Amino acid sequence: MRPNISAFISGLIFAIGLGISGMTDPANVLGFLDITGDWDFRLAFVMGGAIAVHAALRPLIHKRARPLFAAQFPVITASKLDPKLLAGSALFGVGWGLGGYCPGPALTSLASGAQQLFVFVPAMLVGMYLAQVVQARRSASAPTPSLSATPQP
Amino acid sequence: MISSIIFPLLGGALIGLSASILLLANGRVAGISGVVGSLLAPVRGDVAWRVLFFGGLLSGGLLLAWLRPVSFGPPASLSTGGVGLLVAAGLLVGFGSRLGNGCTSGHGVCGISRGSARSIAATLTFMATGALTVFLARHIF
């Protein structure tokens, strides 16, 4: 129960932070990305503020042996840049620049009832699902030592 | 100047606080595309906290809609072309963020806070293609 409560509180604070910061208004986002036009630099301070707080708190949190309600802290294994990371990020950026919504603000803004979110969010979920299908297929078809050594039925 | 950045800074600080709570309590990275996207291929025992995080996002959205509706900007009226654009934007955001293992929150906030080279590269990439897209849409076409 407790991890569910903490996850809810985290989501709640995240959404309020997005709203207060200006991230849930796509006009602000597009103004921020319009660096060659009348550039609205304000949203740079959202990322700055978030990184400042999280980068300061992370080392304190990691002094603990484990999280409060979980067995271990996240283990992040990937360290190299790969084409998938860069291609995915590039496509994400194009979509972000077209609509002015990234995933957090889009999901939060559903609560406003604005109709554009009821078009954008379902499309986003379909896109996420497609990416997961593509990646599952790729990892299933990638040869592994044990599979390549034995003939396929 | 100060007044124009106080809300972005304050909101950003809350986002950093939220990510820190999720790390401290749940041992999870607050990357929205991963937290919510993983619900599309649910794994037993790894669903409830994700649903509750999403519920928190929506509840926060409802609070904003009630107390600070200006947060969402003016409601858009949708033309046929507008719908097509939104569908394309949504597909790209969803597909790209999952393929690239993260979005503005996972790479841009959590990853950079960790000093991850992958996240720095991802953030520079989506900022660049986002800016290029806006440049083409606003100043060329």
Care to give the gist of this entry?
The complex is a heterodimer of chains A (153) and B (141). Chain A has 153 residues and is mainly α. In chain A, 65% of the residues lie in helices and 0% in strands.
Structural class of chain A: mainly alpha
Count of domain modules of chain A: 1
Computed CA radius of gyration of chain A, to the nearest angstrom: 20 Å
Mean pLDDT reading of chain A: 92
Give the count of helical stretches of chain B: 6
Strand content of chain A: under 5%
Distance between the termini of chain A: 46 Å
DSSP strand content of chain B: under 5%
Fraction of helical residues of chain B: over 70%
Which runs of chain A of at least 5 residues are low in confidence (pLDDT < 50)? 145-153
Taken in chain order, the helices and strands of chain A follow as HHHHHHH
The strand count of chain B comes to: 0
Sheet/helix structural class of chain B:
mainly alpha
How does the overall form of chain A come out from the CA principal axes?
Answer: globular
Report the principal-axis shape of chain B.
globular
Key features of this structure:
heterodimer, A: 153 residues, mainly alpha, 0% strand, disordered C terminus, B: 141 residues, 6 helices, 75% helix, globular
List the helices and strands and how they pair.
The complex is a heterodimer of chains A (153) and B (141).
Chain A: H1 2-21, H2 26-33, H3 44-61, H4 83-99, H5 103-109, H6 117-141, H7 145-149
Chain B: H1 2-26, H2 32-37, H3 48-67, H4 80-99, H5 104-114, H6 117-140
Helix pairs in contact in B: 5-6
What would you note in describing this structure?
The complex is a heterodimer of chains A (153) and B (141). By secondary structure, chain A is mainly alpha-helical. Chain A has one domain (2-149). Helix content of chain A is 65%, strand content 0%. Chain A has seven helices and no strands. Chain A has helices spanning 2-21, 26-33, 44-61, 83-99, 103-109, 117-141, 145-149. Chain A starts with a helix and ends with a helix. Chain B is mainly α. Chain B has a domain at 77-141. Chain B is 75% helix and 0% strand. Chain B has helices spanning 2-26, 32-37, 48-67, 80-99, 104-114, 117-140. Chains A and B meet through helix 1, helix 2, helix 3, helix 4 and helix 5 of A and helix 1, helix 2, helix 3, helix 4 and helix 5 of B.
